[in-house]
Amino acid sequence: QVQLVQSGAEVKKPGASVKVSCKASGYTFTSYGISWVRQAPGQGLEWMGWISAYNGNTNYAQKLQGRVTMTTDTSTSTAYMELRSLRSDDTAVYYCARQKLEYHPLDYWGQGTLVTVSS
Amino acid sequence: QSVLTQPPSVSAAPGQKVTISCSGSSSNIGNNYVSWYQQLPGTAPKLLIYENNKRPSGIPDRFSGSKSGTSATLGITGLQTGDEADYYCGTWDSSLSAGGVFGGGTKLTVL
Fold first, then answer.
1. Fewer CB atoms near the end CB (10 Å): N or C, chain B?
2. Cross-chain residue pair A103–B32, CB shorter than 8 Å
3. A48, A81 in Cβ contact below 8 A?
4. pLDDT at B26 over 90
5. Are the C-beta atoms of residues B65 and B53 closer than 8 Å to each other?
6. Nearest to A45 among B32, B50, B88 (CB)
7. What DSSP state is assigned to residue B84?
8. Interchain contact, A107 vs B47, CB within 8 Å
C-alpha cells in the first residue's frame, strides 16, 4: 500500500531554516512527483510546489521563490522540502502528497509535520 | 484570500443531501480538472473526487462531483455524522504564475 511518512515536528527561531523529509513506499518512486502543501493554524491549504522524482524538475509557488528548495533522493525514495529565512507566518503543518504530474490530483498524503517558528 | 471561492460552512441533517460550490476562473477551473479533498479533524486531507467527477477506489458513491464552466460542485447524499469535516476543492492554475490552487475550505456540520 502507498505510504508517505514524514519527519517529526520542528521548532525554529525566526531567520532559521527547516528541512522536512517524506519517505515513500508501496510504489515506484520515480514514476510520480511530490507536491508540498502547508496549512497554517485554523487556515486552508496552500500549495508550495512540486518536484518530479523522475528528473528533479521543480515548480515552486511564486510567493516562496528564493526561500524554498525541494529535492529527492531516489536511493531512499525520500523527498525533502527546505524552507529558509523562516518567519512567524511560516508556522504551519507541512504535508507532502504524491502527484503524478503537476496538474494531476494529490492522491496520497503524508501525515503532516508541524513547524513552529517562534523566538 | 484563496484563488477558488467556497462557502465557509454548510450544514444538514443526517440522511439529507448537501452541495458545496467552488468558483474560479478560466485560468483554473475553466480549463483544468477539479479535485475535492476531505479533511477530518486532526488528520491529513484525503482525495475524494478527481477529474471533476471520478471517485478513487474505496470512496462511496454517496460522494459525487460535477463541473460547469468556471464552477464545480461536490455533492454528498445520505449524510452521516462521520462526514463532518472540512472539504477543499483544488485544481491547477494555468496563468503566468502557474501552480496548484485550493479553495478556502468548507466546514460541513451534520446536525
1. N
2. yes
3. yes
4. yes
5. yes
6. B88
7. -
8. yes
